[in-house]
Amino acid sequence: MPLRPAARPDGPNLQLFRRADFGGLAQFHILDTRQYRTDQPGNGDEMPAEAPALLDPAGTMLGERQRGWLFDGVGKSAARWNVLAQQVMMTRLDLRPGDGELVDVDKWAGYEFERRAVWRHLHDCGVANPVVRTGDVHKNWANELTRDFDREAGARQPVAVELVGTSITSGGDGVDRPDYFEQLGAENPAVKYHNSERGYVRCEVTPRQWRTDFRTVPYVSRPGAPLQTRASWVVEDGRSKLERA
Length: 245
Fold this sequence. Notes:
Layout (H helix, E strand, L loop, with lengths): L17 E5 L3 E5 L15 E3 L15 H13 L4 E5 L16 E3 L7 H13 L5 E5 L5 E7 L11 E7 L16 H7 L3 E5 L2 E8 L3 E9 L10 E9 L6 E2 L1
């Protein structure tokens, strides 16, 4: 994989987390959620959300050093938008229909103690306009990150938004609206948009708003697919809430 000269390995050490500033408009906190994480609980299988192992304080996605670096950086940031660019879905996603919650522990759900600590820090420090940018899952998502999971969905406190980009080819043609979409939405009110086509995510950032366009093609199995904007969402300055454009 291509590396910047500053990230060239020094023996076994390979630091990939870093920051990128765009004047006073945005600061990108680029994370490494692969190198420093502890093993997933339960051998990486899906687990109930209330499983004690998920709240183990020793479980970490970031590692102590990187977590301290992140907390220090977002706490001091004077940027209008603070972007956490990272690899695995941060949204709390319930995979079980009906009563009880089932989560994928390969994602941030497997590190619930640390995830709550990150969200609490973003909230308590008053970090301006946190936006989480994510990849990995080969599908498009637009999610609202909220605290207070013991409350009804409408009473939960917004912390940030998460925008997840799809793959270029992995997964094949895909569809605009997967057949499990209704069940997904019923169990996860924080999920505002989901699509499983191929494409990319385009973001336009100004001091007043963040606009995201989900750009997809209906097929990749043959040439000539037309590019389209399937959905657009905006986040207004000062509000961790997604609005359809």
